[in-house]
Design goal:
- The strands form 2 sheets. This protein has a 7-stranded mixed beta sheet. Strands 8-9-10-11-12 form a 5-stranded mixed beta sheet, covered by helices on one side.
- Helix 4 packs antiparallel against helix 5 and helix 5 crosses helix 7.
- Helix 2 links the parallel strand 5 and strand 6.
- The N and C termini lie far apart (45 Å).
- It is 32% helix and 28% strand.
- It is built from 7 helices and 12 strands.
- The protein is of the alpha/beta class.
């Protein structure tokens, strides 16, 4: 795990392997975290490395309700900001305490805390509730699991066409710093690579389904994109299966 200062007082908590990344902002009014790891122990390790305690955290922005993004939220007593669907999931799984202030939204929210401004926008794609957090003055973008770098993405439970459209919109922010949900700090080239991978895999699978071919025949197609240097190779085949199942429900 690395804590990298990407702009003054704004940090990328870069966590290797399958674990998710975090954003951290130190403000005069307290610390803001974007997402909260898989569990309280992991979140505690992040705090320890940053020289913080749970009481130092005054605001938690949650990008979506996957377990590796909400698991450590129960460590805090601070205000939580999340999409309406995310908050419902967090309440159901008791990741928000009844005493915690909670602010929810559906489409977008403009938020100010400690002198920093955030524009939170609902994108969906990877999961129905996913939001993107943008700091316009610092040009720092937290696209959550809309962006995976250096590895094949986890797509099960996603809306692939919405995901592709979301990736097309991200360059419009003009971000100088992009911290993906998984992987290292990246730029527009990595976003384009992921977008093309998803688009090409979707379209190739669609051709197989419309031609009446089986999943076994689709998996035997050597023309699917294979990205040199990406980890989690086992997800390449699994992602074809997931997309095949989605398209078969529509066209099969």
């Amino acid at each position: 795990m690395q804590i990298i200062e990407v702009k003054p007082c704004i940090y990328a908590v870069d966590r290797p392997g399958p674990t998710s990344n975090l954003g951290m902002i130190r403000t005069p009014d307290g610390v803001i975290f974007i997402d909260a790891t898989s569990n309280e122990k992991e979140m505690g390790l992040v705090l320890s490395k940053a020289g913080l305690t749970p009481d130092n955290v005054c605001l938690l922005i949650v990008t979506h309700a996957d377990g590796d993004h909400i698991g450590g939220a129960s460590l805090f007593d601070c205000k939580v900001v999340a999409h309406k669907m995310t908050a419902a999931r967090m309440e159901l799984t008791r990741k928000i305490k009844a005493s915690q202030p909670l602010e929810t939204f559906e489409d977008e929210l403009y938020l100010e805390f400690g002198g920093y401004h955030f524009h939170l926008t609902h994108f969906g794609g990877h999961k129905p509730d996913l939001i993107v957090a943008w700091m316009p003055e610092q040009k720092v973008l937290f696209p959550a699991d809309l962006v995976f770098t250096g590895r094949y993405p986890w797509i099960q439970g996603g809306d692939i066409t919405a995901w592709i459209e979301g990736l097309k919109k991200l360059p419009g922010y003009g971000a100088e710093v992009i911290l993906p949900g998984h992987g290292t700090l990246c730029g527009e080239a990595e976003i384009a690579l992921l977008r093309d991978y998803l688009s090409d895999t979707w379209e190739r699978t669609r051709e197989h389904v419309l031609a009446g071919r089986s999943i076994k025949e689709a998996l035997a197609d050597r023309g699917y994109p294979q990205i040199e240097g990406w980890d989690r190779e086992e997800l390449r085949e699994r992602n074809i299966e997931v997309i095949y199942e989605l398209l078969y429900e529509e066209f099969g």
